[in-house]
Amino acid sequence: MKWFRRRKAEDVTPSYLPNAEEAAQRFWERWFELVPVVSAALGDGEPHRVEDELRDLVSAMHPDLMFSLEQGHMAMYALVITGQEDPRLRPYTDAWIKAAPPADMVWEFHDSVPPVPDPTEVVVNLGEVRMRLGDYRVVAQVDGDVVDVAVYHPALAELTDQQRQAMTFLPLDVTLGERLAGERLRRVETAQLEPQGTISLLELRSLVRELAGVSDA
C-alpha cells in the first residue's frame, strides 16, 4: 500500500474546479484515456511510470485529495481517492465515486480506505524499520457508541514524530476501513510502552463492528 500526496506547493498550479461534479466528470474523461497505460505499468510491476500522471489527475479535482493504487478485493486493481474524512473534500469524493464506472475484473474504485482482509499479514517498510501489523497491540475502551484506543508496536519508538503518527493511524484504517474508523474511534493515542489488557487488530475489528452493528463475516 503506497499513498501519494500532491507535490509541494511550488510545484503545483492550483487549477481545480470549484464545481465537484464538473471536476469528477473531467477526471473520468481523462482516466479512460490513461487507464491502458496505468494497467500496463502495474502489470509490469512499475507503478512509478504513472505516478506523476495520476497525481496531476487527482490534484486537478482538488489538491488536498490523496490517492493510492492497491490490489483489489474483487478486481485485479483498486484506485482509492480519499479526503481522509475532511468535510471540505467530501463533495469531491462523493461526486467522484458517483460518476465512477462499474467495477470489472481489472479495476474497482473506493472513496475511502477499505479494510484489508487480514491486516496482520501486512508489512510496512519505513527505511530500515520493518513493521509487521500483526505485532500491533491495542487497548480499547468503549464509551457508548465510540471507542478510545491506545496503539502499541515495539518499533514505533524508532520512528520520527511524523512517521509515528502515520503508523499509529494506518493500522486502524486498514483494519476497520477509513470510514468506520472515523465514525467509531474517538481518541487515538500512541503507547510508549506495551500496556496491560491489549487486544489484536482483528479483535479490535470484531469489537468495533459489533458496536456499529456491522457483520464481521
Return the structural class. alpha/beta
Largest sheet: 4 strands, mixed
Computed over alpha carbons, the radius of gyration is 18 Å
The total count of strands amounts to 9
SSE map:
Layout: E1 2-4, H1 20-43, H2 51-61, E2 66-71, E3 77-82, H3 90-98, E4 107-110, E5 123-126, E6 129-132, E7 137-143, E8 146-152, H4 161-176, H5 178-184, E9 185-190, H6 201-212
Parallel strand pairs: 3-4, 8-9
Antiparallel strand pairs: 1-2, 2-3, 5-6, 7-8
Please summarize what this structure is.
The chain is α/β, with parallel strands linked by helices.
Which features does this protein show?
217 residues, alpha/beta, 2 domains, four-stranded mixed sheet, three-stranded mixed sheet, disordered N terminus
3D architecture notes:
This protein is an alpha/beta fold and 217 residues long. The protein folds into two domains: 20-110, no CATH class; 119-211, no CATH class. It has six helices and nine strands. The chain has helices at 20-43, 51-61, 90-98, 161-176, 178-184, 201-212, and strands spanning 2-4, 66-71, 77-82, 107-110, 123-126, 129-132, 137-143, 146-152, 185-190. The longest helix is centred in the first third of the chain and has 24 residues, at 20-43. The radius of gyration is 18 Å and the shape is globular. 27% of the residues are buried.
